Amino acid sequence: MMKRLMCAAFALAVFGPLHARPPAAPAPKPVELVLEDQFDRKADLATLRGNVVILVFGDRKGTDTCRALGEQLHVCWHPTAKGQPAAKAQAAPVAPLDGLKPGQVSPNVIVVPIACCGAKVPPAVRNTIRTQIAKGSPDVVVWLDYADTMKGLFGLTGSEANVVVIDAKGVARVKHNGVIDQAGMDRLVKTVQDLRYEAVR
Predict the structure, then answer these.
(1) What 8-state DSSP symbol labels residue 60?
(2) Predicted pLDDT of residue 8
(3) Residue 37: which residues within 8 A CB-CB, separation 6 or more?
(4) Which DSSP string do the residues of 124-140 spell out, in sequence order?
(5) Is the Cα torsion angle 124, 126, 129, 133 positive or negative in sign?
(6) Residue 76 to residues 7, 41, 66, 73, 166: CA-CA distances in angstroms?
(7) How many Cβ atoms sit within 10 Å of the Cβ of residue 82?
(8) CA-CA distances (angstroms) from residue 117 to 11, 47, 131, 138?
(9) Alpha helices in the chain (DSSP H)
(10) pTM as predicted
């Protein structure tokens, strides 16, 4: 009898109570991302909380692919932007969600293009790059990454578009590096739409 009690006590000490719940996993932390844009302004992801954010990023060789994908994604949730000049396209309203309660606002979907310029770019060349991007994209804000921040946080496939979806609380929920096929695009669109509904629950 004593031996059984000792074994039970040992098991309790090692394994804990038989019906104890496992400790809850810590809640995911919001992504901390602070860069600058082509107008030499601070670009802080935290300022976009409350919206679903799609970060589209790539290196210089992936610029055209990133631009095309970013425009495609923007039109998905801002359909009246299709065929419009950049300034009007950026001002297009977001498609409303169905079934919202009175007073509820449909969360926006903000597509943020990020140019991954590399960590070895000298300051003088950075100014040239910033000026070129400002001239080429005067109406669409482009974030500039001179420290390989995006690569370190999410990985990066060169010469292609890379995508990260951030929910309304600032938490990264989806990451995709490289070419997105149609099935992948369908999943991405569905996930973003689901996150919009999640934000108003």
Answers:
(1) G
(2) 46
(3) 43, 141, 142, 143, 144
(4) HHHHHHHHHHHHH-SSS
(5) negative
(6) 63, 28, 15, 5, 17
(7) 13
(8) 57, 23, 13, 18
(9) 2-15, 63-77, 86-90, 123-136, 149-154, 182-200
(10) 0.87
Beta bridge partners of 50: none
According to DSSP, residue 39 is labeled T
Q: Which CATH number fits domain 29-200: 3.40.30.10, 3.30.230.10, 3.40.630.10, 3.40.50.10860?
A: 3.40.30.10
- Residue boundaries of the structural domains of the chain: 29-200
Closest C-alpha to 49, from 32, 36, 73, 37: 32
With a cut of 60, say whether residue 22 has pLDDT above it.
Answer: yes
Pick from 199, 198, 175: nearest CA to 187: 175
